[in-house]
Design goal:
Order of helices and strands: HEHEHH
Strand content: under 5%
Number of helices: 4
Distance between the termini: 24 Å
Mean pLDDT: 79
Largest sheet: 2 strands, parallel
Strand order of the largest sheet: 1-2
Length: about 90
């Protein structure tokens, strides 16, 4: 995956799930492994949310199913923008 995107000049970043609830904890492990194996930078959203949501349940940022609410998506967007900085298209 990483070699294909590097050869085609595509900027790729893996983004982990922001929640650790249910399936998301497993998905984060898979995403981390794929990023590591392919040398692709990873945005660790779960570590960004951990201080804000010390337990799996975090009603201010997540719906019951683990998907972010508007405040959670804002944190995701700000984290991605901070990480990619000036890497976007000009």
């Amino acid at each position: 995956m990483g070699s294909v995107t590097r050869h085609r000049f595509i900027c790729s970043i893996c983004i982990g799930c922001s929640s650790q609830k249910d399936f998301y904890a497993y998905a984060n492990g898979v995403i981390k492994a794929a990023a590591r194996e392919n040398g692709i930078p990873l945005i660790h959203l779960e570590s960004i949310f951990k201080p804000l949501c010390p337990t799996v349940e975090c009603p201010a940022s997540f719906f019951d199913d683990g998907h972010p609410k508007a405040p959670g998506y804002r944190i995701v967007a700000e984290s991605v923008l901070e990480r990619i900085g000036g890497q976007g298209p000009s």
